[in-house]
Amino acid sequence: MTKNIAIIGGTFDGGNVAKAKVRANLVIFGHAEGIRIQNATFKNCYGSHLIELAGVKNCVIDSCTFDGSGFRYNDAHDESEAVQIDICAEGLNGSFGADKTPCDGVTVQNSIIKNYPRAIGNHNTVSGARNKNIKIIGNQISSTKFKDKQAILFYCFDNSEAKNNTISGYATAVQVFSSTGIAIDGNTIAGGSSNGISVLNNSKITSIAGNTITKSALNAISVKGGANVQTIVGNQLVGSGNNAILIAEKGTVVNTIEKNQITAPKQNGISLNENCTVSMVNDNVLKGVGGNAIRVAVPVKLIQGNTITDTKANGIDLSNQGAKVTKVSGNKISNTKGRAAVNVSCGSVETLAENTITSSAQAGEK
């Protein structure tokens, strides 16, 4: 095993990719430990990764620049990451020994990554091997060239995080698929042709907190496919093309949605769709919502302390038979234009109390 290697400074240039015929990584470490790469620049790659890590333990990539402007491959939908975090396995990196060694303890921080098909993550998995303890922190990630992928993809990762990154131009900024113990906190996300943050396929998330997400074409935050999220808290979500927060599909569980600032989504502010499970929706501020501020189609224990202004439909909408809420209280709702500020046309509420409702176009509670 290779150990204790440092790369400090320098430029790694793949050359004239217009003449290239064989895909190749610029730098690759396999079965290695104690790697540090700092203040280096990586550019011009034909159809592969600027850095490939396979079965690497304890690696820090700090203050580097990854420039995908010269990236080329014939497939317009190439899956290549600027930094791929991979497994030593047959068909992936078997030349290092196909023993299913994953990466453990990789940090990518304070770096600039631009115009790569995907910035950081992986797109393959191996049964019985999972990358873990991966930290993606404080990076500036952008693309004006490739717009149909995720900037960061956690695919079968455990105990990992994406924090304080600035991301623009990708379809989805952070996607989590079949991963556990993931935190997505403090990121600034702009634009994108899909969801800002997407959680799928039975993933388990500790927190989605303190993110600022503007103008996602679909939902700012989407949780589906049997995923489990402990908290969605303190996010600022502006101008989503669909919902600001979407929770949907059978088996999907979210414990708490609270203290989020939601402005001007074209559809619903918080949409709790059929078959999912949500415990509490508390202390959110929603304004200028194009549909219902809070749409409920499932059982919820508590909807409390939310401030809702200027909605084109209902403030809190329970118009689905699955909407069974234990308590709706202490909400402040004004300037709604739908059937009611609190619309219980099909669902049910055990306790409806101490809500303050002003300037509802039709009815306060109905």
Description:
The strands form three sheets. This protein has a 14-stranded parallel β-sheet, with no helix packed on it. It contains no helices and 41 strands. It is mainly beta. The N and C termini lie far apart (69 Å). It is elongated and about 65 Å long. The model has no long low-confidence stretch (mean pLDDT 93).
Write the layout of secondary structure elements.
Blueprint: E1 2-8, E2 11-13, E3 27-30, E4 32-38, E5 41-43, E6 51-54, E7 57-62, E8 65-67, E9 81-86, E10 104-109, E11 112-114, E12 118-121, E13 131-137, E14 140-142, E15 150-155, E16 157-163, E17 166-168, E18 172-177, E19 180-185, E20 188-190, E21 197-200, E22 204-209, E23 212-214, E24 221-223, E25 228-233, E26 236-238, E27 245-247, E28 253-258, E29 261-263, E30 270-272, E31 277-282, E32 285-289, E33 294-296, E34 300-304, E35 307-311, E36 316-318, E37 324-329, E38 332-336, E39 342-344, E40 348-353, E41 356-358
Parallel strand pairs: 1-4, 2-5, 3-6, 4-7, 5-8, 6-9, 7-10, 8-11, 9-12, 10-13, 11-14, 12-15, 13-16, 14-17, 15-18, 16-19, 17-20, 18-21, 19-22, 20-23, 21-24, 22-25, 23-26, 24-27, 25-28, 26-29, 27-30, 28-31, 29-32, 30-33, 31-34, 32-35, 33-36, 34-37, 35-38, 36-39, 37-40, 38-41
Notable characteristics:
14-stranded parallel β-sheet; mainly beta; about 375 residues; 41 strands
| Residues in β-strands, percent | over 45%
Total strand segments: 41
Specify the overall morphology.
elongated
Number of helix segments? 0
- Model regions low in confidence, pLDDT < 50 over at least 5 residues: none
Structural class call reads mainly beta
Q: What's the average pLDDT?
A: 93
CA radius of gyration: 23 Å
The protein's oligomeric status is single chain
* Largest sheet composition: 14 strands, parallel
CA distance, first residue to last residue: 69 Å
Strand order of the largest sheet: 1-4-7-10-13-16-19-22-25-28-31-34-37-40
Q: What percent of the residues sit in helical stretches (DSSP H or I)?
A: under 10%
